[in-house]
Amino acid sequence: MTSLALFSLLYSLSVLTLTDSSLSSIATAAAPAASKCTLLNSFQPGFVVQGDYVIGGVFPIHYNVKMPDLNGTYRPPPINCNGFDPRAFRWAQTMRLAVEEINQNPVLLPNHTLGYKIFDSCAYPLTGQRAVLSMLNGVSEENSSMCTNGSSILAVIGASGSAQSIIVSRILQPFRIPMIIYFSSSACLSDRRQHPTFFRVLPSDNYQVKAIARLLVHFNWTWVGLLQEDSDYGRLPAKGLLKELKGTKVCVAYQEMIPLLYTHRAGLRIMKVMQHSHAKVVVVFAGEGAMAPFLRDYMTQNITEIQWVVSEALVTASVFSGREYYPYLGGTIGFGVRKGHISRLGDFLQTVNPKRYPDNVLVHELWESLYGCSPFPSSVTQMPPCSGQESLLEQNSAYMNTSSPRVAYNVYKAAYAIAHSLHNLLLCQPGRGPFQNNSCAQSNNIHPWQLQHYLQEVNFQIAGEMVNFDAKGDSAPYYDIISWQRGPQGNIEFVNVGLFDGTKAVGEELLIQKDGIMWAGHQSEVPVSVCSASCLPGFRKAVRRGEPICCFDCVPCDSGKINNQTNSVDCTICPEDFWSNNDRTACISKKVEYLTFDSLGIALTVMSVVGACFTLAVCGVFFCHRHTAIVRVNNSELSFFILFALTLCFLCSLLFIGKPTYWSCMLRHTAFSITFSLCISCILGKTLVVLAAFTATRPGHNIMKWLGPKQQRTIISSCTLVQVLICAAWLFDVPPFPSRNTQYEHSKIILECSVGSSLAFWCVLGYIGLQACLCFVLAFLARKLPGNFNEAKFITFSMLIFCAVWLAFIPAYISSPGNYADAVESFAILASSFGLLFCLFAPKTYIILLKPEKNTKQHLMGKEKK
């Protein structure tokens, strides 16, 4: 950049006219023989017309420059501009047409004429600087007035690129000469402190950046590349786009810059980055001059899969409209300035030909560019001579494309804005308008700063459009959305496919007609440019560590969570009574489970009924043989009590099957505990009777008088009453109640009976266990008493089974989930009941039914004769 700055300084000195005594020493050093203000170099304009008031125009008629040697040891030779741009030449002719129309208009600026000086900036900041300095100096030393008074230029239209426009603005600022930009959208130009004389007839990059961001979001292009030129036009919009994309789903995969001094090596490096990236959409902030050498290398690399999104500087660049560009640039989309209508433009362009302007070098280059021939052959050019029969009407070129002028229309509006402002200035009345405290300007002594005040307030209509400027000098934010489509002859045509209206609410600015758009690669479907494929419903995005948020993995939602949208970051937790389906896309009602009459419930029901029937059958057998010895010896009353209690025990297991209710929950635990307590109490009474009966046979023992029927009933009632009191306290304090267990298995709702008070529940079981242990001990003591039928042995074995069942029940109950806990408890009740039934009554029933000969008192007492 140091050499470029030095070269810029040298060129500034080479074209700058030294205007005051403070620079006289420099002038003397540069030209010792000079005794007065002289021009050090000459730079001829492309077109000049004299008038009462002169305006300037700066256009990029050439889009490439060949830099001279920058060693700084001698005055550098002129910059060689090449790459003639017919489109920019058409812009210059549009300015000429506008001035001609204004001069012919009897209403606008009557009795006054406009003149112009049009220069070529070569799409380069340095040559743009040279052009504006030459414009201020004058064409030659004879007609330059800079050495004696202010510039004759009232306003300047241009330049095209933002970098050139910034330089031009800074040069014009000390002279307070207003400039109207027709193709520079850099937002920094809106800063009135830096550029107080600036105006433009197109929106700033702030709006263009918003439009591009909306476009990327609209097409879901979340992984894009960013390519910019090395100038304020490239850097500032790129920075603005990055800021605008914050908070959206769009990420920038890479950001590359086309160097100001382009090299083949630099271009290949950028293309390598583009080819290795997953980003298939590339946003470009660059003009024709920067893109032309890059695209030449791009085409030689045969890269065709890139979808370009370009800014307004490139979107209507006709130099890239040839058929050779379509395979590489076809489908390009971008935002262009709004098109307008200029009725006389086509006819006026036809008048520009070598016959009418034989000495104009630019007209000669136009002919060489359009037809590949030289209108005036010479030894300098190697082109064949033209036939003289060439007609612009027959040439389909960017020059004659007047059907939808865009930038040319901006130039047209800029010229009319100057004319209307000058007209209002000449009609100034003291005390009104911008000069309320000063006298109005004289027609023969108008200064540029006076025109600037009227430009700020200008408001006129042209071609149905209102033209005015806001406080920053900007125009209303409107853009046409342009797509590069293939024309009938294979060339690129710029097709209007939508509109961006920055005055509308957020989200409503963009209007696109998608039908018929052919994208990159001549595809009809919208290209996909993402770092990671969209996460389907049922999945969530998990950002990869160290990578942008657009790069992620798709992770299935956890159980109980759903996601019914694509690319969601989080999964939604289902409500308490709902659970996620298998696809994790919807919440469905949780399955409600309880011990119902399914296979398990039916099995338990059958066992319960069979057990009750067996008990009743045994009871019937005992009743029919109640007068036999085995029934009478074993205390028939207690036997019937036990059978009655066992029947209730079998039946109470049915309370554990079915949907829990408030009453069933209270009954299932209390009925079970009381019936079992009654049963064990009866067995305890029988054990005491057996023990007392055989003990009473010893001399001096008369214990049976204390264990008569009354005492037995008292023992049974008392033992059972204790359990009843425990249950009553349980029901009164914290009774069992139905509950919904959603914690054990989150995908289900388990309906169960909560015990209410765990202390009361274990007290009930503990009391039954205490009774069973007491029975076991007493029966164990009486196991060796004499007799062929010692019932104490069977009571001992029954209590052993009973205790084993309930000791196994405790860990099984605690570890069983939901309805299985009820099944475990029901099974324990049935197992222990069957154990008591068979151990106590199976032997007796066997003797009664199958061995009646043993059903005698002598046999039972062991006194049977041998």
Automatic annotation (TrEMBL):
Q: Which GO terms describe its cellular component?
A: plasma membrane
Which family does this protein fall into? Belongs to the G-protein coupled receptor 3 family.
Task: Report the leader peptide range.
Answer: 1-21
Q: Which InterPro entries match?
A: ANF_lig-bd_rcpt (IPR001828), GPCR_3_9-Cys_dom (IPR011500), GPCR_3_C (IPR017978), GPCR_3_Ca_sens_rcpt-rel (IPR000068), GPCR_3_CS (IPR017979)
Q: Where in the cell is it found?
A: Cell membrane
Q: How does it sit in the membrane?
A: Multi-pass membrane protein
Its main subcellular localisation, reduced to a broad class, is membrane
Keyword RNA-binding in record: no
Could you name the domain of life of the organism this protein comes from? Eukaryota
Give the record's keywords alphabetically: Cell membrane, G-protein coupled receptor, Glycoprotein, Membrane, Receptor, Signal, Transducer, Transmembrane, Transmembrane helix
State which residue ranges cross the membrane: 600-624, 636-658, 670-694, 715-732, 759-782, 794-814, 826-849
Q: Kindly provide the name given to this protein in its UniProt entry.
A: Extracellular calcium-sensing receptor-like
**What lineage does the source organism belong to?**
Eukaryota, Metazoa, Chordata, Craniata, Vertebrata
Extract the GO molecular function terms from the UniProt entry.
Answer: G protein-coupled receptor activity
Which residues does the UniProt record annotate as the domain G-protein coupled receptors family 3 profile? Answer: 600-864
Query: Which segments does the entry list as coiled coil?
Result: none
